[in-house]
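=== RUN LOG ===
request id: a7f3
mode: sequence -> structure
chains: 1
length: 282
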Amino acid sequence: KWGYCKSMGTSLTYDGEVAVGGSGEDWLRDGTSRANVAGAHEFAEGEGPTWLTRAQGSSLEIISQDESVAQLDPMRLCQFLLGESMDRGVQLHHPATAISVSKDTKDELTSVRIASADGSETDIPCTRLVITAGPWTPTVFASLFPSATTKIPISSLAGHSLLVKSPRWTKEHEAKGCHAVFATDTLGFSPEIFSRLDEEVYIAGLNSTDIPLPELPADAKAQPEAIETLKQTAARMLRPPGGHDDLQVLREGLCFRPVTSSGRPVISKVPDSKLGDMKTRG
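=== RESULT ===
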């Protein structure tokens, strides 16, 4: 239902380069590869992902332990979770914007007001409010709690991606498991390529901290030059030498990921003392 498949993590280097490890957002911001080749071993000639074109002088090494890596389709997983939640009675208001919160005579949180796309507004009673808005979380929090004395330490990282079909990645190949390939710098960035179920190959790794966060996720517009770079990467790494233009582009994307200085997600209760003139029930 969500494209789960066992996978193998691999590192692709060129001309004796060594993949760069890192923590936090360093590898994202600096455009280096996530691959850490410690303890890796190289594929034999002719082995490795069937869809990957290995240039002369390149080295492909396994960087994951057996049975330790798997992947899934994030979109399908989210759609599944949303469907399961709504079947259990969760109410969805979408698209909608949280515009304010209300409190009672004890200054305790009592409701959140949302505005729908048609301009109507609705008050939803609540005593607990969970904000999970990715890189938009700091903005949402600040707008709902303008007198709060804390800032949410989340920043934004933009990433372009490409989803393609390749005749060298078929149902027969999927039966042997998927691959995650982390490559060192090529064409100005470190590509990350994942073969998925349903004969799909996902290409990413082209990240930037310079693209401003749009007001809404739906406002994100992929930059043509970035998509062209990914297409060139796909042609170089997925098309066989001398092969025809047999890659089919399924989807072009630009997403904004939440990042923190530690590289870890923030899951925390904001203390009442930092909410300003608002508090929550005990």
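=== NOTES ===
The longest helix spans residues 224-238.
The longest strand covers residues 248-259.
=== END ===
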